[in-house]
Every structure is written in structure tokens, then in C-alpha cells.
Amino acid sequence: MRVLVIGAGVVGAAVAAGLTRRGAEVAVLDAGLPGAGTTATSFAWVNANKKDPLPYFELNNAGLAAHHALAGGPTPWFFPTGHLEWATTDEHAALLAARLPKLQDRGYPFRRLTRAQALGLEPDLVAPVAAEFVFYPREAHTLPGLLVAHLLGEARDRGATVLPHTEVTGIDLATPTVRTAHGDEHTADVIVSCAGRWSTPVAALAGLDVPLLDPDLAGSATVGFLATTEPVPARLSRRLTHSRLHVRPDGGGRLMLQALDLDGAADPAAPPAADGPLAAEILGRLPDVLALTAGARLEKIRVGQRPLPADGLTIAGFADPDNRFYAVATHSGLTLAPLLGDLVSGELYGTESPMLATFRPTRFATGATATLPEAPRRPGEQ
């Protein structure tokens, strides 16, 4: 089978790897540098913690398991060190109290910790006596660029061709053929779109509708700030959720920071300065989370743009009646990528996945919608 994969982010890389494991002849086309689009602006938290409804939770929970299986333990790209959350406000505590019974019913591992136990995990934690601490041992984080490199490397080792800086400008499903901005044409048996936040315009080239919310809309649920510090002398080995700040290691002593309640000001057309007022606000919260971080500086602050399908849920399935254009789009790309690589490639080889039945793009023909969050979000939310 010959397959063209459009998009070399983490999902496209995983699908390419999955297809080559089955013996497919694969070419991956990306408009820019692989991994430099949507994947590069992700907090890269691997989890199913706050995923609803139940089929979406189950998909993400299986995605978490797939990461562990792919890595087989700590690797340069995967850190199965868990996730520590603690509530310092009444609002966050109420959200936590409502969420934990649901997770318990679903069999999702967590345990409540004392302050001393939390400090045993993270000695540099700033841990108020009155805070409530919860640890999720199966959760993890990734370094997305290294994960993409691993998956694309696996695909290339099995013969896949990766074509960076190759923008797709036309799609003819009758052949099927993809035309590029270079004037080239590439033919295959099936096309798989893993174009992230560009999924809607890529599908439109084939005359199809794969509806995502506008990834450029300032202040919406599709955008949010991601800040990266310069190296700091604080010890940290896992993802932290504080009532006012999310923190995870980002390699080389750097930390990635996310303050969701500030995302209402996020505008992709106006990225903030790394030494401006927004940076000062985010950095001002860090000493309440980790010791020895007062005076830290940011290397960069970016506006992440999320590929968010119109009803908030993953899209995975054929978008055309002749099964020549398979679309994949999801807000949970970092969590789901290894699983989708296996399930999507299996479906192209004729093994339909029950886990993906809820998420077909054809559901939008019936006008499916959902209530989506509006930035700013609440403490403890994703």
C-alpha cells in the first residue's frame, strides 16, 4: 500500500511509523520543518485526567498506555514520573473534589498525599500546610521534538520518505494525487491528513469538510501562552499543577510554564515579549510553586495554537465515501500519537477500531456540536 501522510508533527510521525511497521510505502509531506508546527507549541502532558465524555477518556487512557509501551521506561523523550497536583484555593479544591470520585469510578490511578509525602517527591516544592495534594503515578510528560525525531526516524529506517518544506496546494481524490507548491505531484492509494491546526484548509483542497475551530482567534479556547525559563537551580522531575501555575521540566534545567487564567489575552498575531508585563506576571507566580526561582527569566514566551475540532473531540476516520482521504485531528495529539499511529494504520489495512467509532469525521454531517471552554479557564483545568 502506498500512503501519503500530510503533516510531520507528532501525529503524522506516529502514523507514518505505524504504517511502515505494516509494510506500507510511505511519504510524509510537511509545509515546514517536521515538528515545528502545532507540536512545537504543546505543554506535552500525557494523561487522561480531565477527558470527557467517557469514550474520549477511554481513548486518552489507552493513549497513555501506548506511550508507556512505546518507551518501555524512561527515554530521552518520555518521562513517566507522574503528575503532582495541589490546591491552594477554594475554587481549585472544589474542582478537585468533584473530579477525583469520577476518576476513582473509572479506575484511574491516583493517591492523596500528605505534605511530607509531596515534599518527598519534590523537595523544592513550595507546599503550604493547608494544601491538598494528589499524585497521578501513570501520567507523564514528553519532549515533543525528541518524540517526533524518534517516530520519524523509525519510519525512515523502514523506508519512509520525509519531505520537509513541501506545502500541499492541491488534492485530487480520483487518482489520488497531491500537488505541492514546488509543482510536484505525488500519487498513492490513500491520503492521510495529520495537518494539525491546518486540517480544515487541507481537507478543503480535496473538497471535504473537517471542521476545526479557528486556531488564530485571539482569546479563544484554541490559543494559550507557553513560557520557557532560562535554566533555574530548582529540582523538578515531573509535571506540577498549582492553583495558579502549571510547571514541567523542559530539559537543561529549563521549566515550561502555563497560566491558564491569563490565556484570555493570547493573540497569535501579537506574541508577547519575554521581558514584558505578561512574562513578569507568569514569573511572579513561580516562587509560590518552586524554591530558588525568584528572579528567574524567560527565554521565550509563545502563543500555542491548538487543533480543536468543532465539537472538542478527536477526529479520526475517512472523510470521503471512497475511503481515499483519512483525516486525523485532535487537541490531545501528544497523548494520543502512539495509539493513533497503531489504530489509524490498522484501519488503513482493514482492521476497524471500535475505539475510534465515536470520532468519525462524518458525524459533522449531522451537525454535532458541544459546549467548549472559553478562555480564561479555571484553576486546575487543562
Description:
This protein has 382 residues and is of the alpha+beta class. It has 2 domains: 2-44 and 144-215 and 309-366, FAD/NAD(P)-binding domain, CATH 3.50.50.60; 83-137 and 223-305, D-Amino Acid Oxidase, subunit A, domain 2 (D-Amino Acid Oxidase, Chain A, domain 2). Helices cover 26% and strands 22% of the residues. A hairpin with a 6-residue loop joins strand 19 and strand 20 (325-329). Helix 1 packs parallel to helix 8 (333-348). The chain is globular and about 65 Å long. The two termini are 39 Å apart.
Secondary-structure-derived class: alpha+beta
Question: Could you state the CATH homologous superfamily of the largest domain?
Answer: FAD/NAD(P)-binding domain
Task: State the total count of DSSP E strands.
Answer: 20
Arrangement of strands in the largest sheet: 6-7-5-15-16-17-14-18
Major beta sheet summary: 8 strands, mixed
Uncertain stretches: 373-382
Task: List SSEs in N-to-C order.
Answer: EHEEHEEHEHEEHEEEEEHEEEEHEEEH
